[in-house]
Amino acid sequence: MTEHQLLKIEQEFESPVYVYDAEKIESQYKRLTDAFKSVKHLKINYAVKALSNISILKLFNSLGSGIDTVSIQEVKLGLAAGFKPDQIIFTPNGVSLFEIEEAAKLGVKINIDNLSILEQFGTKHPKTPVCIRINPHVMAGGNANISVGHIDSKFGISIHQIPHILRIVENTKMNINGIHMHTGSDILDIEVFLYASEILFETAKQFKNLEFIDFGSGFKVPYKLGDIETNIEELGKKLSSRFNAFCKEYGKDLTLAFEPGKFLVSESGYFLTKVNAVKQTTSTVFAQVDSGFNHLIRPMFYGSHHDIINISNTKGRERFYTVVGYICETDTFGNNRRINEINEGDVLAFKNAGAYCFSMASNYNSRFRPAEVLWHNNKAHLIRKRETFDDIIANQIEVDFSPKKEKQLVK
Ligand SMILES: *Cc1c(COP(=O)(O)O)cnc(C)c1O
């Protein structure tokens, strides 16, 4: 999308607003499927939690994608978007047996990552096929918060507990149809990923009725110049040939599944905000925008970098700005960034605002969550209205503290 198109969208829908470029989502999806085209059965299950607007889900449905869901609400959202139950996989962590049963009743694929729940579910529903989430204990990336494969992780069943899984399967006669791993959010090194995949293949051999192997996600996209990005094409080449060889050995053409979120939607997104005030202190020039970590929490929560550009003044002289928000708490979006000269009223665009941005937004400071716009076929479609004051008070229940009422109660 061009800066001019983004500016026009801000003029029409006002700030703060999220904008998603459908073409970028489609090209990322195609890049992934092209990289694995030598695999007979490939399934991409888009991770809904990255960006869960129903129109985005419908776009993925039209591309032939399935979805990966982590709550019963996401399952229902997927069904509402038109996905068939068998195009949905439920991959929760730490949810109740009841919630898993509810998802199974809706006919979606079930992924279990806990021995206790596996045994209970298998005992009650031995006929419902189940996929197992394995923790191969491989560290992908360096950030402990987003590496979910290490030994103390709450995710997955440890590979050291495979004998327990086998005992449960034997005792309950349940049917294991898939093996899954999701090692973390940053695959920097393809060799590390392939190493974890070998562990998964080794595990898969122990289950005779598999239909698919799910390699999770963790594809890294660039957030700034010089960032390492997962080389999808190289991974596709290497993993495809290894997977095809495994299928031969296994004696069946299994489905190779992935469940990316960030890779598919991150770069499609722009978050547009307006500068309320430029504030010069003795050491810093602050640009204060009409947003905060209530709308985009990644910089404050994960220390993430989002490039920020001034789309109102793309030719202006570059100066240093610290971009902050308007909520009553430290909400820095970027420190000492070189940005084209900013004037009050200018529109700043945050890049890579597709994944884990709107979906993590809140009403903190009693602010409205932003509107969302999908740019598709050269047209801006409003896909979520900005909230209004009615949304803020909708579920709140007022207690009457007037003295008269108190007396009546006493009587
Ligand atoms: C969040 C999540 C994903 C998506 O991860 P990305 O880093 O956004 O690609 C995939 N699988 C599971 C189980 C998840 O929880």
What would your notes on this structure say?
Helices cover 32% and strands 23% of the residues. The longest helix is centred in the middle third of the chain and has 19 residues. The chain has 411 residues and is α/β, with parallel strands linked by helices. Strands 1, 11, 12, 13, 14, 15, 16, 17 and 18 form a 9-stranded mixed sheet that branches. The chain has an 8-stranded parallel beta barrel with strand order 2-3-4-5-6-8-9-10, surrounded by 6 helices. The radius of gyration is 24 Å and the shape is globular. The protein has 13 helices and 18 strands. α8 runs parallel beside α9. The structure holds pyridoxal-5'-phosphate. Pyridoxal-5'-phosphate binds next to α10.
Fraction in beta strands: 15-25%
Would you state the CATH class of the largest domain? Alpha Beta
Structural class of the helix and strand makeup?
Answer: alpha/beta
Q: Work out the helicity level.
A: 25-40%
SS elements, strand count: 18
Q: How far apart are the first and last residues' alpha carbons, in Å?
A: 68 Å
Largest sheet: 9 strands, mixed
Question: Briefly, what is this?
Answer:
The protein has 411 residues and is of the alpha/beta class. Helices cover 32% and strands 23% of the residues. Helix 2 (22-35) crosses helix 9.
